[in-house]
Design goal:
The protein is α+β, with helices and mostly antiparallel strands. 23% of the residues lie in helices and 34% in strands.
């Protein structure tokens, strides 16, 4: 199945590919990301980053990158769990500092949530975010996420600690459809298609945006 892409104003959003790893290393090692969104030390190599990202436990995963002039400027990941938590997915988001507050995070969120609802049929999406990352918290709230709990001393930050929130959005049973590729054509936010020979990953399709406001961005936690 051919991979569809979103293109607009020089921006391309498509599924993650091996050639994106160098750009993702730069994103995840950026000082802004490490301070605002990561409990990890900088990755020493691209291979270390790849092993970590590919090793995120998930029954199914949907990972997209935002590209500008072939440069990775954003990443979004949706990780659906299995067995007794097959209704649940984790979300991760990151945007390079120079490209924040330009609506890129919003585009990625639309694509991830549209896929979760319409294609995968998830009833819950959750994430963790540092409690002082106000821009990211505000972005997630605009997509229906609510704070469910606070984790004190969640991660070290230099000689101090930072707390984190668990945030989640729930979809009522009537709001969630069984995976239906045809229904995606009528989705306001995203289209997607499943390829059974695509290594257990989703293939992202067209994102539709109509008069979308620029939403303050920040990086989601890793």
């Amino acid at each position: 199945m051919a991979m569809a892409q979103f293109r607009g104003k020089g921006l391309t959003v498509r599924t993650r590919e091996p050639q994106d790893n160098d750009g993702l290393l730069e994103l995840f090692n950026e000082p802004c990301f490490l301070h605002d969104a990561s409990a990890r030390e900088p990755f020493p190599s691209c291979e270390d980053m790849r092993i970590w990202l590919d090793g995120i436990a998930a029954a199914q995963r949907f990972e997209v990158v935002a590209l500008l002039q072939n440069e990775v400027i954003g990443f979004g990941g949706l990780y659906a769990l299995g067995e007794g938590q097959s209704h649940l997915g984790w979300l991760m988001l990151g945007v390079r500092e120079a490209f924040q507050r330009q609506g890129i995070g919003s585009i990625l969120m639309h694509m991830l949530i549209g896929t979760a609802q319409v294609f995968v049929g998830l009833q819950r999406i959750q994430l963790t975010v540092f409690s002082d990352n106000i821009a990211a918290i505000n972005l997630y709230k605009q997509f229906g996420f609510e704070i469910e709990g606070r984790h004190q001393r969640f991660a070290r930050r230099g000689a101090d600690f930072v707390d984190a929130f668990t945030m989640a959005v729930l979809f009522e049973v009537g709001e969630v459809d069984e995976p239906n590729v045809e229904a995606l054509r009528h989705s306001r936010f995203t289209q997607a298609a499943w390829s059974s020979d695509h290594g257990g990953r989703w293939v992202a399709g067209e994102h539709r945006s109509s008069g979308e406001k620029n939403i303050p961005l920040s990086n989601g936690p890793t």
